[in-house]
Amino acid sequence: MAPILPSPPGHAALKPLLVCFSHLRWDFVFQRPQHLLSRAAASYRVLFIEEPMHLAPEPGLPRMEVRQTAQGVLVVTPQLPSGLDETHRDSALRILLDEFLQGPDGGPVTVAWYYTPMALAFSGHVQAAVTVYDCMDELSAFRGASPGLRLLERRLVQRADVVFTGGRSLYEAKRSLHPQTHLFASGVDAAHFAQARNGASRDQDPADQRDLPHPRLGWFGVIDERMDLNLVRDVAARRPDWSLVMLGPVVKIDPASLPRLPNIHWLGMKQHAELPRYLASWDVGLMPFALNESTRYISPTKTPEYLAAGVPVVSTPVADVVRDWGSDGLVAIAPDADKMVADAEAAMKRSRKAWLPQVDLRLARISWDGVWSAMEKILRETEAEGRVAQTGGRSSTPASIPHV
Predict the structure, then answer these.
(1) Structural domains in the chain?
(2) Among 76, 147, 159, 397, fewest CB within 10 Å belongs to which?
């Protein structure tokens, strides 16, 4: 095991360092990592290390590209020459990481925060006071997952001091693997999405949505193998007078596979700040998830975001949505196109004033501020106990009561 990296001069007075290893890019869809680490930046110096970009060979490669977000997070993107095999890629990443941590923005690592176990291949030698695995998805079930991911996840769980899970189903799947497993389901920035409740005039309506007829049924988020494209097509076909507004990047699937009906509008990715303007004129929020291995453990962040915007939601029967939202009647659950159409029609007829107070009571319990505050308390307690990830040290304390 390599020694702890030396502290650069002048780091004693700086905030403790949190290094996050992510499979998602900061500028991708704004979701759990961005919400949590933006808040972490108030207490930590946060390095958000993305997966590498592979570029045509040129002078200066490999290198790190660095930029700071408005929230104070330092986003670090390794840039590697294309054509490297796995061994040389991991070696280059390890050298870049070590050089960076020894530089002016580095220092001893207080918290190593992992979203992807794959990062262990180049960061496993770095010692941290606390190692966190924030498991937001069952990545091994996603299309294109590395065959080695399961093994690396087992290694990460073994060295982690704390495991956070992003949903109830994930918690149930992981809690037996580590005694310090905590459930932190999706939070919500209610104030941000509540801007949509005021409605939107035609001038405020985004230009690419402005001329679409009502009713408008919308989706925002990643469009990939987790979406039931046949269901989207069938809903649109059953109600050609409805506009289906689909926002988000198309990832890991062929764009040619998207259903192309006159009333389905694929408008592409939008920034987080733009979403309330779109939602302001939506009549229903759709969650047409496929029911497959890639959705078995998901707990969609968009569920409370739709509701915070005052938009009624119709979802396929994803386990966490059914248990956390459907059982309380806050989200309609539709297993097929006929039921989705019927539930959407019912939602549009129901007065929003009748259910928004119940929605707001629930949302008040799950703010991202509250989620991060509870996580940070666990980090501070773990650090104070003096557990070090590289020793495999574990507390004998039983798994925590889930945070929901």
Answers:
(1) 17-187+369-391 (3.40.50.2000), 190-363 (3.40.50.2000)
(2) 147
